[in-house]
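From the thread on structure requests for the teaching lab: each student submitted one protein with a one-line request. Submission from student K.M.:

"Model Cupin domain-containing protein from Chamaesiphon polymorphus CCALA 037, tokens only."
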Amino acid sequence: MKNITESSDRSFTTTLSDLIEYPASGIFRKTLLKDNNVEYNLLCLVAGKELNEHTASRNAVITVVEGSGNLNLAGKDIALVPGVFIFMPARTPHAVQARSNLAFMLALSE
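Reply posted by the TA:
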């Protein structure tokens, strides 16, 4: 499925569970909305996938939609399960590991 990418000058709605797709390996990413201030992405990681430690140049919010995993946030382990909400200031080191297929929203903002 292609990215939805809406603009912020009009309202739109979607059901996240309908958009979840897991690739055979790796990560599937859909950009739902993007403008000059914020970007909303749905990320789907297959079980066993790891994102090595990295940083983001913008503030980041993760909201877990389904599955389970682990987030190492500046040296602290956080369980990723549905409903978990995490705020990370820009440039905070973090890494992600999917224990099962894992889907989460990632919002990047100024």
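TA comment: The first helix runs from residue 16 to 19. The chain has one domain: 18-109.
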